[in-house]
Design brief:
Helix 1 (64-74) packs across helix 2. The strands form three sheets. Strands 1-4 form a two-stranded antiparallel sheet. A two-stranded parallel ribbon has the order 2-3. The protein contains 13 helices and six strands. It is 60% helix and 4% strand. The chain has two domains: 11-120, no CATH class; 122-343, no CATH class. The chain has 344 residues and is mainly alpha-helical. 51% of the residues are buried. Residues 1-53 have low confidence and may be disordered.
Length: 344
């Protein structure tokens, strides 16, 4: 799905995976100011992935990747675009009054919909930041595969997504963390891939963009980035996005949206790279959870045999969801264990 999406990926606006700390340390606060053009509402709680509650998605500014959850859940083609096109919403019920979805469909997702802003602090803010950068990296990783296969037209949307959809949302955090601007190199890369993909500037701008994202990641401390607790939370955000994208890519047992398939491949591949960095610690300190996560990640990797979609899906969206849930459940055991140790 060729998208200008991620208008605001943000857990700060109920992003991919709104996580709150279990150790009693505040990680997210609800803003007293509702989303633009919305009326005040009661404070909404941010759900914890281990508590079994539905995660709230702010339909006024959630990224399209996040809105794809509704598209996959309800089986409505291009629903994420329809939700975005009908903004702003005064209340969640506007999805029905604006005829985006039916009342019956709304009833299935109403517990997941909000128009409330969420302001992140502490660890949750860092996880949000790292996840946004991870989504950028995933897009560029799959774009590189497609460029290497001489498929610039397929690669271009994945180069465009980071700058058109994610950068605007991460920009304030980049400024706060004193990270050098890299929007310019992303735009230059996209322009060259569109107009002259064989230009040598494509290679240099691509390398510059990837390095800029890596540099932005280092704004977080090396110790934090090596902690399983932190990495697993970022992974869960990436896996959640990949799961939604894959669900939106499949229709009638076929891969009907190559871009969604490719998005999910990029996110999975980067999540796998992150896990490799903590695998030895996990194997030593949490062997049972490590085995379950590693096994599921290995199975997930088979779903995307290449950047070009296979003729027939390797696994159903339900199969992928099961694997992602297994990883998230075992990750949460480690996260909760770390929280308990921190309290002692």
């Amino acid at each position: 799905m060729i998208k200008f999406r991620y208008i605001c990926l943000t857990i700060a606006t109920a992003a991919i995976f709104a996580l709150s700390s279990c150790n009693g340390t505040p990680t997210a606060e609800n803003s007293t100011t509702p989303a633009a053009n919305s009326s005040p509402q009661a404070t909404e709680a941010v759900s914890h992935s281990g508590h079994g509650n539905k995660k709230k998605i702010n339909i006024n500014n959630a990224i399209l990747s996040e809105l794809d959850k509704f598209e996959a859940q309800l089986g409505v083609p291009a629903l994420s675009h329809k939700i975005q096109a009908s903004r702003p919403y005064i209340s969640p019920e506007d999805l029905v009054s604006k005829k985006v979805i039916t009342q019956e469909q709304f009833d299935q997702i109403k517990d997941q919909v909000t128009i409330q802003e969420v302001v992140l602090t502490g660890e949750a803010k860092d996880v949000d930041y790292m996840t946004k950068l991870g989504l950028m990296k995933g897009h560029l990783l799959v774009a590189k595969e497609l460029l290497d296969q001489n498929q610039p037209k397929q690669a271009e949307p994945h180069i465009g997504h980071p700058v058109e959809e994610i950068y605007v949302d991460v920009e304030q955090q980049l400024n706060d963390r004193k990270v050098k601007e890299f929007k310019t190199s992303l735009i230059s890369l996209q322009d060259f891939v569109k107009s002259n993909p064989k230009n040598a500037k494509v290679k240099t701008d691509f390398a510059s963009s990837m390095q800029s994202i890596d540099n932005a990641v280092t704004a977080l401390g090396a110790d934090q980035r090596s902690q399983p607790r932190f990495v697993l939370q970022v992974m869960n955000g990436l896996l959640d996005a990949a799961n939604s994208e894959y669900g939106a890519a499949i229709a009638d047992g076929k891969i009907s949206a190559a871009i969604e398939y490719q998005d999910s491949r990029g996110f999975i591949n980067y999540a796998n790279d992150l896990y490799k960095g903590i695998a030895s610690k996990m194997a030593k300190d949490h062997p049972q959870e490590h085995k379950a996560i590693e096994t599921s990640m290995t199975q997930l990797a088979t779903v995307w045999p290449s950047a070009i979609p296979p003729a027939k899906p390797v696994k159903t969206p339900e199969d992928v969801t099961t694997l992602v849930k297994t990883i998230e459940q075992n990750s949460q055991k480690v996260i909760d264990s770390s929280s308990t140790q921190a309290q002692r």
